[in-house]
Amino acid sequence: MIISLRTLGAAGVLWYMASTAIATPTIDTSRANYPEWNEKSTLPSATASVPFMKDSAIELASDDEPAKADQPSESNCSSCQECNSSGCCDINYCCCPPWYVDAGVVILHREKSNAHEIMRPVNPILPSFTSTENPFGWNGDLDVTVGYRTDCCNAWEVRYFGDPGATDRESIAFGFNGAPAIGSQYTIATGGPFDVLRLDAQYQTDLHSIEINQRHTVTDNVTFISGFRYLELDEDLTIDVTIVGLQAAQYAWSDDNHLYGGQIGTDLMLWNRGPLRINSVVKGGLYGVASDNAFTNRTLVGTTIRNGGSASDVAFVGEIDLMATYSICQHVALRGGYQLLWIDGIALANNAATETSPANGGALIDMDGDLLYHGATAALEFTW
């Protein structure tokens, strides 16, 4: 495991959240220093000047006794501080509706991880091959958040998003388009050397994330986040090697990762004027990860060999979101932005393929992989 990278990532997230908390005032001083108006005044009797008004509709107050306070309403709280100071933290009178739902999609791109050679040439002047040379495409899935505010400054929320079916395919016909000559000899994993005619590879990744967070607003611009997150990352890499004589061998690796852990973060409001608001969310945490690697080899003679390994370790997961929200009406808004997700300390199929050799027979697991997802998200926000 690359401990230094995980430690650096975790330290960076904590530094960011601490700096935003220190840089943002804990109260809005422009609202906290209102002058106190204590001058007494005497008003003429309302019943004397308006003959048709009944006395029972009027509550009189002397100049030494304050009038009865108005009942709280949705319009008398414009910030978290005012909401608390005015005693209207009962959610029915709060400035924000208790329930909110963001329903939309996220379109993510899986960056290629650093991969070493998988197919190695017998002649060192020939090129080697990794899992796939082409980049992964863009894939969409649901991005749904359901939240409930217990009062003006505290909320619980659940979020799910995923990126299933990210697939990369590649086919190389030897002797064409700059590929090595037909019959060039290569080794792969536990097999070879082969007189290769054609190479076909497919790499697929499925990502699922679900988290439960508690949000605590400390100022109008800063909200602290803490919670639990579960991620599942499943990878499948299959390489079919066709040799001269049209015999074929298949090599397949399937790596599954289950991550459980706590996270902390900060939601920083960058802009909030009129119908538009812009915010940045940074979250990070350490996760326990349980990983499995299954290796399957269908040989040239048709027999099947299976092997693999499993292990557990610690992984780091960090996320950065930059979001913009535009209110269409009181209860509906448009949301969109950019999301980046970094996972470090997991088992990847291409790393397992690199490490597989005749010596270990595929009975291994490599948990030093790291992965980066990034892309766009768009949703409708409903509040009530």
Structure write-up:
The protein has helices spanning 3-23, 29-32, 46-49, 80-85, 349-355, and strands at 99-110, 119-121, 138-151, 154-173, 184-188, 191-217, 222-243, 248-273, 276-298, 304-327, 332-346, 369-383. With 384 residues, the chain is mainly β. It has a single domain (3-20, 97-383), classed as Lipocalin, CATH 2.40.128. It has a ten-stranded antiparallel β-barrel with strand order 1-3-4-6-7-8-9-10-11-12. A hairpin with a 2-residue loop joins strand 5 and strand 6. The longest helix has 21 residues, at 3-23. The two termini are 46 Å apart. Mean pLDDT is 82; it is low at 21-59, 67-77 and 86-94.
Task: Describe, in short, the structure shown.
With 384 residues, this protein is mainly beta. 11% of the residues lie in helices and 54% in strands.
User: Helical content, roughly?
Assistant: 10-25%
Structural class by SSE content: mainly beta
Q: Give the averaged pLDDT, no decimals.
A: 82
Q: Please, how many helices?
A: 5
Strand line-up across the major sheet: 1-3-4-6-7-8-9-10-11-12
Q: Largest beta sheet, briefly?
A: 10 strands, antiparallel, barrel
Alpha-carbon distance between the termini?
46 Å
Q: Strand fraction band? A: over 45%
CATH topology: Lipocalin
Shape label: elongated
Order of helices and strands: HHHHEEEEEEEEEEEHE
- Please tell me the total number of domains: 1
CATH class category: Mainly Beta
CATH architecture: Beta Barrel
Residue ranges: pLDDT <50 for 5 or more in a row?
A: 21-59, 67-77, 86-94
* Radius of gyration, in angstroms, nearest whole number: 31 Å
Number of strands: 12
